[in-house]
Amino acid sequence: MKPLGRRLAPLYRLYERRLSRQIAGGALPRHVGIILDGNRRHGREAGLSDPRRIYDAGAEKLDDVLDWCCDLGIPAVTLWVCSTENLARPEAEVAGILGAVAAKLGALAIDPRTHARAIRVAAIGRLDLLPEATLDAIGRAAAATADHGRMLLTIAIGYGGREEIIDAVRANLAALAEQGASLAEAAAAISPESIRRHLYMPDLPDPDLIIRTSGELRLSGFLLWQSAYSEFYFTDVYWPAFRRIDLLRAIRSFQQRFRRFGR
């Protein structure tokens, strides 16, 4: 008898085509943010114990997601791969996370598909907290793709939403101090627009849609400033098992909502 997954494959293909028809012609998100959750639980269910193998499985999923988003014409994708809190996990696990990320970034830098699809790679977060090998992989991917402009892939690594806001306010105040502003003048000059100019990537449009995998119903600090009017979609699927139908479902849900932006 065929494994269950193979027996269900024709049904999934039919359902995928149906979802594709349903979203065709509808408004697509310009920027999709994804919180990659469930790597460890997926690893346990797969019988994996080595952290590097666990996170390699999650890193490989990126290839599929880039294919799907490029095919749909989504111009910006931000993936939260590691938070500042994650860096406090046991050393072996942190090494597994960062090793998998560095290997995938290195592969992206030389992958012909990255260049054929004009994907630019960037990273945000407190990058000074990362080891040299990870920074080197980030730098090589960014340099190799710097001239691309069809899609922007942003890797949030060593990232926290509260930390980003703190860093933006500090940079804002430092810029005002360099202009000779007093403390009172600097405080009076702070505005949403001035803080936004000092975010890690100020020109990146706010995410229209944020997806979190693994069934957790919270943002955990992802793009706190930028997500004020984002639409959220939560799926029970673990990140390494994320499928195209899960992305299409999220987009269908996004298209069914009426966005008022506070008005």
Structural features, described:
The mean pLDDT is 95. Helix 3 runs parallel beside helix 4. By secondary structure, this protein is α/β, with parallel strands linked by helices. It has a 6-stranded parallel sheet with strand order 3-4-2-1-5-6, sandwiched between helices. It has helices at 4-23, 39-45, 51-72, 91-110, 112-116, 132-144, 161-178, 183-189, 192-196, 244-255, and strands at residues 31-35, 76-83, 119-124, 151-159, 209-212, 231-234. It has one domain (28-163, 207-255): 3-Layer(aba) Sandwich (Undecaprenyl pyrophosphate synthetase). 49% of the residues lie in helices and 14% in strands.
Secondary-structure map:
Blueprint: H1 4-23, E1 31-35, H2 39-45, H3 51-72, E2 76-83, H4 91-110, H5 112-116, E3 119-124, H6 132-144, E4 151-159, H7 161-178, H8 183-189, H9 192-196, E5 209-212, E6 231-234, H10 244-255
Parallel strand pairs: 1-2, 1-5, 2-4, 3-4, 5-6
